[in-house]
């Protein structure tokens, strides 16, 4: 082929020794085409230099399978549901609202699937999703280790986007919040208010899930403060199990001016210990949108925007026919905002 000449799908099919229709379906990752055939067709596309038009590819996908091509599933961990009402937590509802709105705009049908109740009870859970015509799966975080659930599905059959921090062993694109930016925002606010003793309170597992980005942003400020007036070094409170006893022991030992945490129970524990907020200590919540204390100071994570970003990532994967693991993972992170509140003077 001469330079600048555009290769065609017919050339890909001839190179791979398949029909044009099979080549088209294989390049879109259609599960009806054998895995080896899909690999052979994709290799042939590389050889002839074929690049699909994403808009035409999307139209072709709908033509071949109008009922099933545009179905997405978001898998949620049943353990997040409250035992009394079986309702989803508010952070999840916000995220799902963003997903539903954007999925509708792009023309997808979005189905919410529970891991334990709807997938783990079946010998072949892939049949559950395929029976609903699911071509893309969005995976929300598990309350605990989700390795067992993740091993249930054949991920090569789906386009996949991780939402938040799933701690998956697979290589998937991800949409989530920017934990490092959130703590940076808090530190900037504390410096503006001339507050120096800032104490981070997080369960160790929660900080591990965030890749220690909250601690990292705070440590950066401690380091920069070595040669200028800034934040003082306060030992963080990060026990394996964060409870009232461990928290109060830390508080009375360190005496921070402001506590930064994603655990709303800290406000209750301080009240029970007759520590006045914000007169004696300020509290900043890293997830203040979902706290029972509606007027708390802290960071708004905009989880509805995270849901929208996840669908946008998924849309690109579906258009390109990309299934399973990706070679280079991408992250689309949503920047937070600071919200003033009555837990900080």
Automatic annotation (TrEMBL):
The keyword Mitochondrion does not apply. The keyword Transcription applies. It holds the Pfam family LacI. Residues 7-61 form the HTH lacI-type domain. One of its GO terms (molecular function) is DNA binding. InterPro entries: HTH_LacI, LacI/GalR-like_sensor, Lambda_DNA-bd_dom_sf, Peripla_BP_I. Keywords: DNA-binding, Transcription, Transcription regulation. This is LacI family DNA-binding transcriptional regulator. It comes from Thalassobacterium sedimentorum. The lineage of its organism: Bacteria, Pseudomonadati, Verrucomicrobiota, Opitutia, Puniceicoccales.
């Amino acid at each position: 082929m001469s330079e600048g000449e555009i290769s065609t799908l017919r050339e890909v099919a001839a190179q791979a020794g398949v029909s044009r229709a099979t080549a088209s379906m294989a390049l879109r990752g259609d599960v009806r085409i054998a895995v080896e055939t899909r690999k052979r067709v994709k290799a042939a596309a590389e050889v002839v230099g074929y690049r699909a038009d994403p808009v035409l590819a999307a139209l072709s996908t709908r033509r071949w399978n109008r009922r099933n091509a545009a179905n997405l599933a978001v898998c949620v961990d049943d353990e997040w549901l409250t035992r009394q009402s079986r309702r989803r937590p508010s952070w999840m509802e916000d995220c799902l609202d963003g997903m539903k709105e954007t999925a509708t705009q792009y023309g997808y049908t979005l189905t919410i699937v529970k891991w334990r109740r709807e997938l783990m009870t079946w010998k072949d859970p892939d049949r559950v999703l395929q029976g609903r015509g699911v071509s893309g799966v969005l995976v929300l975080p598990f309350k605990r280790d989700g390795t067992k659930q993740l091993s249930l599905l054949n991920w090569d059959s789906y386009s996949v986007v991780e939402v938040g921090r799933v701690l998956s062993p697979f290589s998937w694109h991800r949409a989530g919040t920017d934990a490092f930016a959130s703590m940076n925002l808090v530190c900037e606010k504390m410096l503006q208010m001339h507050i120096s003793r800032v104490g981070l309170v997080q369960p160790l597992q929660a900080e591990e899930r965030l890749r220690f980005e909250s601690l990292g942003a705070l440590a950066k400020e401690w380091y920069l403060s070595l040669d200028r007036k800034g934040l003082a070094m306060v030992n963080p409170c990060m026990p394996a199990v964060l409870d009232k006893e461990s928290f109060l022991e830390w508080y009375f030992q360190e005496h921070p001016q402001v506590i930064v945490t994603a655990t709303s129970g800290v406000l209750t524990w301080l009240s029970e210990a007759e520590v006045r907020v914000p007169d004696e200590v300020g509290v900043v919540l890293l997830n203040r949108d979902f706290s029972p204390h509606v007027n708390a100071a802290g960071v708004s994570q905009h989880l509805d925007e995270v849901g929208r970003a996840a669908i946008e990532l998924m849309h690109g994967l579906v258009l390109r026919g990309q299934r399973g693991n990706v070679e280079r993972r991408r992250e689309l992170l949503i920047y937070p905002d600071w919200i003033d509140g009555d837990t900080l003077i």
